[in-house]
Amino acid sequence: MLKQYLNFKLSQKLSPQQIQLMKLIQLPTLAFEEKVKQELEENLALESGKEDENKLLDDPLLEDEYGDSEQIIAEDINVDDYLSDDEIPDYRLKSSNYSSDDDDKSIPYASGASFTQQLTDQLNTFRLNEESYLIAKFLIGSIDDSGYIRRSLIDIADDLAFTQNIYTNTEEVEKILHVVQQLDPAGVGARNLKECLLIQLKRKEETTNTALTIQIIEKAFDQFTKKHYQKLKKRFKVSEEQLRDSIQEIERLNPKPGSSLSNNLRATEHVVPDFTIEILDGKLKLALNSRNAPELHISKSYNEMLLGYKASKDKSKAQKEAVQFIKQKLDSAKWFIEAIHQRQQTLYVTMSAIMNYQKSYFLSGDEELLRPMILKDIADEINMDVSTVSRVANSKFVNTPYGTKLIKEFFSESMTNSSGEEVSTIEIKSILKSVIEQEDKKKPLTDEKLANILKEKGYPIARRTIAKYREQLELPVARLRKEI
What we know:
Layout: H1 16-26, H2 29-42, E1 46-48, E2 61-62, E3 72-73, H3 74-77, H4 115-123, H5 130-141, H6 153-163, H7 170-180, H8 193-203, H9 208-219, H10 221-225, H11 229-236, H12 240-251, H13 259-262, E4 275-280, E5 283-288, E6 296-298, H14 300-311, H15 317-357, H16 359-364, H17 375-382, H18 386-395, E7 397-400, E8 403-406, E9 414-416, E10 422-424, H19 425-438, H20 447-456, H21 463-472
Parallel strand pairs: 4-7
Antiparallel strand pairs: 1-6, 2-3, 4-5, 7-8, 9-10
Helix pairs in contact: 1-15, 1-18, 4-5, 5-7, 8-9, 9-12, 14-15, 15-17, 17-18, 20-21
């Protein structure tokens, strides 16, 4: 049986303006500047630069003959309402000794020939018939940024038939591949790491050590990668010193030969710090990058349009529609200016709370003094939502006396040590890294032994947790840390 009943519940919905504000807060400095530039282009009621006093509207009333529903009063379009008073002084929201005139607006671009083009230019120095040349160019096009050809020769032969109308076999493709592998840098065009290392070794001047190294790679590559050094000494009947020389020879090779060329052509990622923390007279001083505080105001021409409308005795329908359009643009400009001020306030308040929470670290630079801190700790401190703090932390950088840091790096979980004190997982990772760096590389410590050492230092951590922290530190297992 169907019944109707009333159900009351509270729900929170974000307005479009709130959603846009959250997006603004999340933007780092460079992206924020692009957003401001875009808004200035799209909304002609918005202008950048300092505002003259004569640009303010002082009209008490703009009458609208459509009635109260469409009446435009002064408070709707008064520019004073489009600017809000800051609780934080303007100078606090800008970096020290930084003028807007010093802004570097230019964006560097990388130039030069592509990786593929550089290889093709080298190929032009070889004498090849037309078909071989086309196969070689196709192989060059199949090389990835690391310098490897990851596809099988039979697949390449098939693609040559379908796309280039060249009918050949894998033997011919492999023959041309050996030509491509003669290009620089040495090792380019290899199909796997083993082949890459062998290409580089065979280019070297032949010595006793080089000959032994080639034998190790050709005949015992798996044993070498697993660091079974005792088995290698026994198999090749060499001394520990000879084996060490061969291993050092291999370590000097480039496992990713393509990176030496392709990386040079990638656009460099420039990090612009959103905040600056300085130590002055033993106290911390925080400043927001002035590029996050652009000077915006309402366009004077829109004021003149409204004055013209007011002075007109016979107001046409087109004029009234124009005034409504102007009001929409003014509302949009007002919201954007207020959103920027709100963004400045949010960024500054959030970073200030983080700085004060981690005061010991910022004064000393010692990572072991970083306190356990989660997003909720800062959110409770500044009475904001956790998601807001997350948006600030995930994409913003701070310039400190110890380098430029991503803000989210200051957040960490906590654990209780043997003394019952709350310590940061960052501190534990720092100690773990130090222990691994000081270990005997001939007998590296297993995760179980590392757990026991940290337990002795007062950090009772399970072996699986040690393994997780070690992986986060990008440190290999004990077997792969072994050195001869």
